[in-house]
Amino acid sequence: MTSKTPILQLEHLGMTFPGHPVFNDLNLTINRGEFWSIVGENGVGKTTLMRTILHQLRPTTGKVNYLPSVNAVQIGYVPQFRNIDSEYPLTIRDFVGLNLTGWKLPWLSRGERQRVEAMLKQTGLTKLANRPIGQASGGEKQKAYLAQALVERPNLLILDESTASLDPVTKTELLDLVQQINQTLDLTVLFVTHDIPLARRYTQQFLMLTPQGTEQGAIDQLTDQKVWRGEAEHV
Amino acid sequence: MFSYEFMRNAFAAGTIIAVICGIMGVFVIARNMSFLTHTLSEIGFSGAAFGIFAGWTPLSGMLLFTVVSSVIVGQLSVRAERREAATSAISALFIGLGILFLSLANTNASYATNILFGSVIGISSSDVTQMLVLSILVLIVVLVIYRFLKFDSFDHTGALVKGLWTNTLSVTFLVLLALSVSVAAQIVGSLLIFILLTLPAATAKYFAHSVGRMMGLAILLALVGVWSGLALSYVTNYPVSFFIAAIEALFYFIALGWQHAQTAAKN
């Protein structure tokens, strides 16, 4: 069950790049355990918003509140692409373990190795753990990115168009997995996507960014027509 | 061969160099810094020439130039799209300065050759001690920042999201690299130092799939190259840097061939 404990609040958030307003007066409260989709056309500011939430950009106006405190909110991030070519040497197991930076010794402690193995198991990667990630398929890579993001036990997970380059079956597999983790671990998820049917299938709420402003609500209010209308008005 | 003190010193120095290059090389390859390493070695040449001009040891001049320039290069190269052009400009400037300092120092051609291509007979036991101290310093810093450096080198996107101090890590790594270049240039010379800082690790990448194993294999390959190079140089009286370069390049081409065969077998 989703509790109504706020984890993230955007208060009058605005971002303007020189001569180009991205979004303005954005207000949003995200509660613990909720699964949100963030939709909107290309260039409307979805990634800028995510980078603002990730502390990588400072908003022009307003603020991002992490609740109950900034240290209490651990963010995991799964991007669409990473700089991993076919010759990238690390195995999936080693790649997942990269995110464990808390212990001071160069090698992983027993507890940390157990966490890596548990996450590999949870994401269905145990049998592939020794495969160099450069040689993994797109779906396996995304699962490895997910496992790496989750191994530090975040309470907020951002999927930034993580399914965009996957085939329909792999998309479903990945989101089934995220949904299961969302429900069992009470993990809050922000899913940035263009795929409205996928958003309707898996998420509970939506935030739509358009050049005219933002709209939010329960996911059953989100239709392709609504997104197309936003885009058409922009054109 | 080992009855000569200079050969014992050369083997001791070569072993230190192989270890430091094996470890640092893995990060050089992961961070795509082969070209930058090449530039630092040229800056090392300029620094050594300045050291001679100023009446210092070549190593002191190298340390000064490589450390200062690594910070400048790091700042200029933050944007990936201008990295190569900025590095080329700095490389050209420092080679020119190196030639100027050598000319001003009024040294003979063999001194310049030693700086550029290294020398086996010039290594004294105090040089070995100096290299050991610098190498230990580099290793201690690498050990302290190891997990952060590993994350940033092998997954920069993940490290950024995690909020790691990636810019500071980058500059710290460049300073460590500058120290490694200065240490290793004593044997193979400033012109060929990038061989040991890139090829063993680039070869190891095809056979080892964890950072620790890559380091282990890179150290082993560097040791084989340096020891064999020293022995062959002693026997034939040809330059040690030629043998080290040839051996390491051979390993690399074998690795490329092996990788190609593996890929072909899968398809």
Automatic annotation (TrEMBL), chain A:
One of its GO terms (molecular function) is ATP binding. It holds the Pfam family ABC_tran. Signal peptide: none annotated. Keywords: ATP-binding, Nucleotide-binding, Transport. The keyword Transcription regulation does not apply. Coiled coil: none annotated. Gene3D superfamilies: P-loop containing nucleotide triphosphate hydrolases. The keyword Transport applies. Residues 8-235 form the ABC transporter domain. It comes from the Bacteria. InterPro entries: AAA+_ATPase, ABC_transporter-like_ATP-bd, Metal_Ion_Import_ABC, P-loop_NTPase. Belongs to the ABC transporter superfamily. This is ABC transporter ATP-binding protein. It comes from Levilactobacillus zymae.
TrEMBL record, chain B:
Its main location: membrane. The keyword Transmembrane helix applies. Keywords: Membrane, Transmembrane, Transmembrane helix, Transport. It is a multi-pass membrane protein. The keyword Heme does not apply. It holds the Pfam family ABC-3. The chain crosses the membrane at residues 12-30, 50-73, 85-103, 132-149, 169-202, 214-234, 240-258. It is found in: Cell membrane; Membrane. Belongs to the ABC-3 integral membrane protein family. This is ABC transporter. It comes from Levilactobacillus zymae.
